[in-house]
Amino acid sequence: MSQPFNTPFWGLAIASMIGIAACSSPPNVGTDLSEAAKRADYPTIQPLDALLASQPAAIDIPSLTGSLEGRARALRARANALRTPIVDSDTRARMLAALARR
What's the whole-model pTM score? Predict the structure, then answer.
C-alpha cells in the first residue's frame, strides 16, 4: 500500500504553494494611520466590572416583535399577490385560440 504523501505530485504541489506564497507582498499593517493616531497614547485597560456594569439599554422586545410580524405579514401578502395569474382568463383564451390556428 502506498503512502499518500510519498508521490512526486504532492511534493511538487507543496513546493509550488510555498513558491507562490513567497512571491506575495507582505500586508501593509499600520501604514494607514493618521499622524494624530500615531502620536496618541496607548488606551488604558478598564476593569471588567466597570465594563459589565455599563450595559446597553434594554431592547423593547414587544415592539421589535410587532414590527417583525408586520413585515412578515406584508411579505406574505406580496407573495400571495405574485401567485395570481399574470394573464387574465380572457386573454389566455385568445392566445390559446391563436396558437391553435397555426
Answer: 0.30
Range of the domain at 101: 69-102
Domain count, the chain: 1
* Cell triple for 7: 508521490
Classify residue 15: in a domain, yes or no: no
Q: What is the pLDDT of residues 41-96, one digit of tens each?
A: 988 888 888 777 777 777 777 777 777 888 888 999 999 988 888 888 899 999 99
Burial degree of 83 (CB within 10 A; 0-12, 13-18, 19+):
exposed
Region label for 35, one of left (φ > 0), alpha (ψ between -120 and 50) or beta (otherwise): alpha
In a domain, 52, yes or no: no
What CA–CA distance (Å, rounded) separates 14 from 20? 10
Q: 95 is written with which cell numbers?
A: 392566445
Q: Could you please report the per-residue DSSP string of 1-64?
A: ---GGGSHHHHHHHHHHHHHHHHSPPP--STT--HHHHHSPPPPPPPHHHHHHSPPPPP-HHHH
